[in-house]
Structure formats: C-alpha cells, structure tokens
Design goal:
Blueprint: H1 3-10, H2 13-16, E1 19-25, E2 28-33, H3 38-47, E3 53-61, E4 97-105, E5 110-118, E6 124-126, H4 135-146, E7 149-151, E8 180-185, E9 190-195, H5 215-218
Parallel strand pairs: 2-5, 6-7
Antiparallel strand pairs: 1-2, 3-4, 4-5, 8-9
Length: 219
Amino acid sequence: MTLNDLQQVLSTPEFTKAVLHTVIAQDEMTLVIQADALLEVAKKLHDDFQFEQLVDLAGVDYSTFGDSEWDTTHATSTGFSRGVDASHLKTHVGSRFAVAYQLLSYTHNMRLRLKVFLDDEWPEVESVTPIWPGANWFEREAFDLFGILFRNHPDLRRILTDYGFIGHPFRKDFPLIGNVEMRYDATLNRVVYEGVEIEPRTLVPRVIRHDNRYKEQES
C-alpha cells in the first residue's frame, strides 16, 4: 500500500464521517478525527490496514499555540518574564487539548498519525488499550502530565509524579515553581509536604543596554 492508496481508502464514506481533515507533510499523513470515532477508526486501521504498532501516544496543550512569547530574537527592557507570569498569553482559539497517536505498519512500511481534539474543561477520550495494549503506560503518562482521562483504561493512575501530586505539570498554566515542595523530616521519620518557598524570578537577558562606546552614535 502506498500513500496514494491510503488516501483513496480514507475517501470512502466509512472514513469521511470520522475524519475531520487530512494533512500530508514529509511523506507522512496526519488524520484529525472525531474523538467519539477514535476506537472505530483505530480498530479498522489495525485490523484491515495492518497498522500493527502504536509507536507513541502523547498529550498536547495548545493553549499558547501560535504565541511568540518565546521569541528571543529581541530583548525587552523589562527582561524575559515568560514562565513567571502567564497572564499576557493569548488564548488559543479552538480546542485546548489533543492526543496524538503515532502508528506504524510493518506490512506496508508506512507511518500514520492520528490526532483527536478534546474538551477544554473535561478532556476525555476512549482508551485504545484493547487495540494496542502498549498504550497502557502512554495513556497513564498523558493522564499524569496533562490530566487527560482515558475511558475504560485498565489502571488509570499517575505514573511519573508522586502520589498526592497536585496538578498536571505539562499543562501550560502549571507554575514552574510547582505547588508544593517536599523534604525528609528526621524527627517524623517521613517525607513531608510544605508550601513552596522559592520566589519566582524574572530572567533578564545578558545584553549590554548602555555602552559608552556608542554614545556618539546614539546622539
């Protein structure tokens, strides 16, 4: 099967209802599909078109997508405040959260990417572990770091952060200093959690703002 063959298959009625749009770049195809049609499309790609392996699954937070606040070409007089105060960030138009699935077909030597966009307030989608069992830990990671819920997952719990961790650290609005800090208390003989004592700081770029050598040119 070639990329053109796959395009023709995806143009059939059984797929057009589920596929919102298709993007082709670098000889790889990305299918943006409806979240409620994920299992149906995934099963058909696995069973009928031999996409045997789920290489990766990742959550995405699009809340600052398209914003140029990370552009470091020009320094500002106040220094770089990114990572400290996110109140100036533009609001992303459209769904904030998405899940991307990287598929591989050994039979056809072909890669395919699926992407589903989720609700901003309650990001939730069906688990693909019945189709690709290797999605188990990938989905747990997306749940832990982004707060994305995977319905019918066999064991959906945190996998990277500590028990009782507050928040989801890969969300764009998660504070860089965190919400709590922990230390070992020798008196209590256990780890204790306390409020964060680190003060947020603004990183000022190391550039020369005033130089006597250029006074004549400035005047």
